[in-house]
Amino acid sequence: MLAWYRAAQDLLMILANSNLTLKWPRVLWKEEGKDVGADFYFRRNTPSREEVRWDETLLPYARIRSVFGKMIETWIDKRKSLGPGINLYLGTRRNKSLYAEHYFVNLVWGLEALDRRVGSSPCEDPNLKNKIQKLQEFVSDAKDLNRSDRKWLRGLLDSRSSERPLSDRLYELLKPVALGIDDAKLKAFTKACADLRNDLSHHGGEREVGDYERFITGVIKNSDALSKLYLLLIINLLGVDEAELRNIVYRDPGSIVFKESFIKADLLPDVDLDAIFERYFAEPRAPQPEAEGDILS
């Protein structure tokens, strides 16, 4: 029961786009032919005071009423089968006190885990395979290497030959939900995310010490966009179709949050307000008052 309660709470958090906490569940059972009930109390995080806002809700119940039961079943199944691919995202939503670097790597780790569990295709680049084969032959023939070194290097090369670069994996994973985003921009974005993740993993931050402000700015803006794409990906895994995803990103009241994040990460072009005003005044939709008094007349 506890697992179902927490799964339902996390699903509603995603659909409502709010860190809500459900009330204590009430357990009902039969005792001597009578209905008996009791509140079920257990350890949990402090309930959030954050209220659900209609303009931030991603999928109102009216739009998913016919499939809501199936969606709960799918969600419970996906949480079990995809494990960290789901849980690492949920952790970024529940834990608001993460530092920017930790928040970002949690998103990337979650997407890496998700990619491995949804059947990512192995590396099929013939040039890369040929290069790795030559390196393996070099390792085998190198007389200065001992047995332990050879074993370690072979394992490293084998793992590199079977798994595609992180940027490619992120691109393939996010492409189905990157609706309206130029393909070249998405590739540049996933390459930037992969580079940032590698810098954090191998250097603990910026590659060259002294440029932290630029580095952390890149982490924050890419994190914001990546979290939105991650959210869309999870919603898509629940069976939500492309039309609904487009509504979320481009048409619904809360779509501005998605568009702003994508613009800052250079996934979407910035809005040209001058062009909009110029077009509006060239072809006005309503009569323009010629004098201030005309507004009230």
UniProtKB/TrEMBL annotation:
It comes from the Bacteria. InterPro entries: HEPN_Apea. This is Apea-like HEPN domain-containing protein. Residues 106-242 form the Apea-like HEPN domain.
